Amino acid sequence: MSHDDPVTEFDARFSDPSARATPWPDTLRVLRDAELYWLTTVRADGRPHVTPLIGVLHEDAAHFCTGPQEQKARNLDHDRRVTLTTGTNTWAKGLDVVVEGTAVQVTDRPALHALADAYVDKYGETWRFEVGDGAFGADERVAHVFRIEPSTIFAFAKDPHGQTRHRFTHPG
Fold first, then answer.
1. Residue ranges of the Pyridoxamine 5'-phosphate oxidase N-terminal domain (predicted)?
2. How far apart are CA 78 and CA 9, in angstroms?
């Protein structure tokens, strides 16, 4: 989230009395360190489509990529609203994070090079992407790259249980 820090709000209605708001840097750490994310997109008929994928946090923004023929890419062609989730998948420890926002395609060559490097830094050589014309790769092996422009990011702490909302305001 390459803009100002969000407005952070703690929701005591859904939290243990001893819980406190999750600080923004802790939420970013979970997004940065996650190995796997779940991306939800909206199908043309309005049904949700959920799929696991890898991704990177670059310049404090969540990024993912997808082939143009994949269901999530076809969904993004008509509706850019997405939800990205990650966390610990446990009840009483860790932090789960939910990012609600809009997927914005990244086509700038320097940005794509930086993101390709970020994938290698995080996942190793197995995930080395070549940068093509406005995407990773070329021809049949192309992947479109997206940044999530967040509207709200929720942090769900589990020890003690606490719900935090980080709200974003975007220019314009």
1. 30-154
2. 32
